[in-house]
Amino acid sequence: MINQQPDCDLKALRMLCRRGIRELDILLQCYMNRYYQSASIEEIREFKLILQMDDHSLLSLILNPAKDKSMTSFLLCQKLQYCHSPDKLDIS
Prior knowledge:
By secondary structure, this protein is mostly helical. The radius of gyration is 12 Å and the shape is globular. The protein has helices at about 5-15, 20-35, 40-50, 55-65, 70-80.
């Protein structure tokens, strides 16, 4: 399913991706550029939820996704971990 978000929503999400930890900025912006437009509704919901987390908890979740019980969260964290790999990670 292709995500059709209004531009104002995308701008607001991009601002939420700007964090106090530079590594998070890079990973979250990369996710927005590579995966967000083709993300499922469930994945978008999960992405918006994790953006509400504090920086250290979010970084911990991305680095150790197995601690979380949600499969959507786990798959989202995998995409975030491998965002800068040359090939797009296909774990749909």
